[in-house]
Structure formats: structure tokens, C-alpha cells
Amino acid sequence: MVNEAIEQRPTRASSIYLLLRNEILAGKLLPGAKLNIRDLSKTYASGLSPVREALNRLSAEGLALQADNRGFKVQPVSVPELADLTQARCWVNEIGVRESIEKGNTDWEEAVILNCHRLKRTPRFLPEEEMIPNPKWATVHKDFHQSLISACGSNWMIDTCSRLFDAAERYRNLARVAGVSRSDPRDEHQEIMSAAVDRETDLVIELLNAHFMRTAQLVQTVVGEAEENSA
User: Fold this and answer.
1) Confidence (pLDDT) at 187
2) Cβ–Cβ contacts within 10 Å for residue 107, how many?
3) What is the mean pLDDT of residues 51-70?
4) What pLDDT score was predicted for residue 4?
5) CA 122, CA 162: separation in Å to the nearest integer?
6) Residue 37: how many other CB atoms lie within 10 Å
7) Mean pLDDT throughout 103-111?
8) What would the DSSP string read from start to end of 75-107?
9) Letter string b/e over residues 189-215, b meaning 16 or more CB atoms within 10 A of that residue's CB
């Protein structure tokens, strides 16, 4: 039992990878920011090898960029990539939603309803800090979107949607850091949930695509500015 616990304990490289990944996705590490291995090893009180391994994992995931003889930096952003990402989310989630509505049973319906309820009940910002995002909201937000495609029957599809969600979240958080946020008062998630459990496939896809597009349009100006700054 002790050996199993030791094996399951995160490695130093994994811990650093998760810390850096969260900071990149949250917009705390801006696009184009240098990721110096020696500086990071001091920050995390670690050797060079775990930091290098963490950066290689981030590079493979598309969150960091490695240039020959120039080290690593946070993956830059661009308006064309945002458009590509948004289109990919629309395409992949459409397939996942169609399959889930066709194959999903009452357990799937209950999961979609429950995750939507949790999202609605979770404050978006921390009560003690003005305009500081609530990490729990970010978690339940992703849980809701993943629940929509959770009955599609393909782990590859579910994993792809998860990766696309994280990439889009990075863009959304860059806009939030710049002081730009959604002002549309409509409860889009509630509308999407209702259409899903009613098995209105075309309506769910229409609402979901519009949901993705609104966010992309919101952050486009901020992304353009970030693209210029990181060039």
C-alpha cells in the first residue's frame, strides 16, 4: 500500500507543469513571456531537469513554444488562431452533441442538468475580492460543457473537446485580465441545457455555436493587441 501511494504521488516535473499550465490558462503568464529554465528552477526550488520536462510537456500541448537555442516562451496568440480554434470547437462539439443526444440515457440527462445547476449556483467571482475569478466556477463551467458530449461514446472525442475548451479558456482569460467581460444578461447555459434534455439537437448546436462565437468576438480585439505585443 505504501509503495502504491508513493507511485501515485505527483513527480516534481508534474507539479511544476500543472502550476505553469494553470498560470498560462489563467492569463497570468502572458503570450510571448519568456520561460527561462534557470529562473523557473529558482522560483520552484527545483532542479533544471524537472523544469525542462514540464516545459516540454507544455510545448507538446501547444501552451509553450520552444525556439532553437532561444529557450521557451509562452505560446503567442493570434486572431487567425482564435478563429481556427473557435471553428474547431464548433465542429467537434457538434459531433459530440449529436452523438450524446442520440445515445444518452437518463443518467446523461441528469448529469447535464446537475452540472448546469452547479454552474448557476457557483459565484463567478470570489466574494472577498472584487472581480477576482472563482476557481470553482472555472471547474464547473468546464464540467457543464463536457457533460454535453459525455455520452458520445468516444474517449478521443471527449479528450479533444477538453483540450479545445482549455485553449479557448486561455483566450477568454486574456480578455478578462484586460478588463473585457461578457455583458449579455441571457442565461445561455440554461438555454443550452434545456434544449439538450429536450433532445432538440439542431437547437442545441445553434445555441452552442453562438455561445462560442460570442466569446470569440468579445476577445478578438484583446487578442490582436496581445499578438502585437508578443511579436
Assistant:
1) 83
2) 10
3) 88
4) 41
5) 21
6) 15
7) 97
8) PP--HHHHHHHHHHHHHHHHHHHHHHHHH--HH
9) bebbbbbbbeeebeebbebbbebbeeb
